[in-house]
Amino acid sequence: MVTIAAAVASVGLVGAVVFCLIKALFAVVEFRKMSHLIKQFPHEPPHFLFGNLLAYPGPNDEGLKFQREMTGKFPRTQSAWSGPFFPMVFVSHPDTVRIILKTSEPKCYRIYHLVEPWIGDGLLLSKGQKWARNRRLLTPAFHFDILRPYLNIKNKAADVFMEKLTRYAERAEYFEVFNDVSMFTLDVILKCAFSYDTDCQQLGEQHPYVKAVFAMSEMAVKRFFQPWFHDDWLYFLTPTGRHFRKCCNQVHEVAEEVIAKRQQVLANSKSVLEEAKNKRRCLDFLDILLTAKDENGKGLTPSEIRDEVDTFLFEGHDTTASAISWAMFSLAEHPDIQAACQAEIDELMAGRQSDDILWDDLSKLPYLTMCIKEALRLHSPVPFIQRELTQDTDIDGHIAPAGTEFRPERFSEENSNSRHPYAFIPFSAGPRNCIGQNFAMHEIKTVLAKMLHRFTLVLDPNHKVERFESVVMKTKTGIRMKAVPR
């Protein structure tokens, strides 16, 4: 019996070894095929171990300059290796970009999985049938009828921000733009997502939820530039990884508590609209999620609702803060253009008792809109749009000349009509474009219009601004300016 058992064990061991060898062989064959395909694209010779990483100056202004030079050198497409095993293909011409973005290929998992413990399997990370179903269910949450009442929230949050700028102005004090703008966008997104008031613009990071969100954002950025910690198993053994998980749990507990309470309230109400009226609030993102039903009458599960709320917060906080901050920088850098925006806003506000932005006002600020789009072009909040191809894709194209001068007229109606639809995509494009782009643009217009109506922005002449590419476009040194009352 012992001999038979030993023989069976030996056969099992041999089978396991053979299975592993076959899998390894298939992996080698697939890797060689992929390497052969990647080599067909124009490229710089990669290092056998580091790939093309050694040539990259870093996520700063020099790195951005390097990327422009590479785009000029390879006028069609370019391949590069991140280490010995991870190839990438860079495309920048609208025609080649369209090939990638017109499909619903998933986001690059190697990058975005770093925040998966936080945002779960929401629209940003989900794929296939789940992504398609949930995208259909969430689209009504961004209909204009839903977005219109949010403008009141944005105006009130902007007023709190303006009070802070007034205090800076009274002291003729230069302030760091990103910090205050980030608190403003977080204030807006929390109230619009699930009517959660943290008073973060006044309290800063004193609120535990706000502290956890900012800590996770900072840790995710640091981990992005530490590829040796991209493996979850290793990362969560470190003190930073354990702290990240602790912050995730804090944020999830708050979201789950709010969701459970809202579900209980809705169970005793005839409709979400009735509940919202009783609470004297507008319908928020959570209301839409709780009542969304697919074609089979099935709604989202509690975990799916939490994932989508956290994804909405993640995507609508830092990116919008980056867009507003760089728009403020661009306008302060060009006083004549800033003055033209102010003249447009003053004309709109003439004779009013309040400078609140009304719904119809959003379409009556064409020059400000052009300036916002030009700032998005020069300082894109999301430096790279990444996709993970699930099938072989034929890519070809030509390079378009890039401009570095701030010139809002690029986005005049005439110039926009003649532009390739994939030449300017700050919110991505195609099926997986940013579902909240109108929400974001309304927020940016509202706060900038109020700001420019009350103040003139002046950069600190003794402070050098250095861009820093991370998950969103930020700065290594911050942006310092002062607000001069008009």
UniProtKB/TrEMBL annotation:
Which terms are listed as keywords in the entry?
Answer: Heme, Iron, Metal-binding, Monooxygenase, Oxidoreductase
Domain of life assignment: Eukaryota
PROSITE patterns xrefs: CYTOCHROME_P450
Q: Does the keyword Metal-binding apply?
A: yes
Provide the cofactor list for this protein. heme
Question: Quick one: which residues bind heme?
Answer: 434
Family annotation (Pfam families): p450 (PF00067)
Q: Tell me a Gene Ontology molecular-function term this record carries.
A: metal ion binding
Protein family per UniProt = Belongs to the cytochrome P450 family.
Q: Name it.
A: Cytochrome P450
Its lineage opens with: Eukaryota, Metazoa, Spiralia, Lophotrochozoa, Mollusca
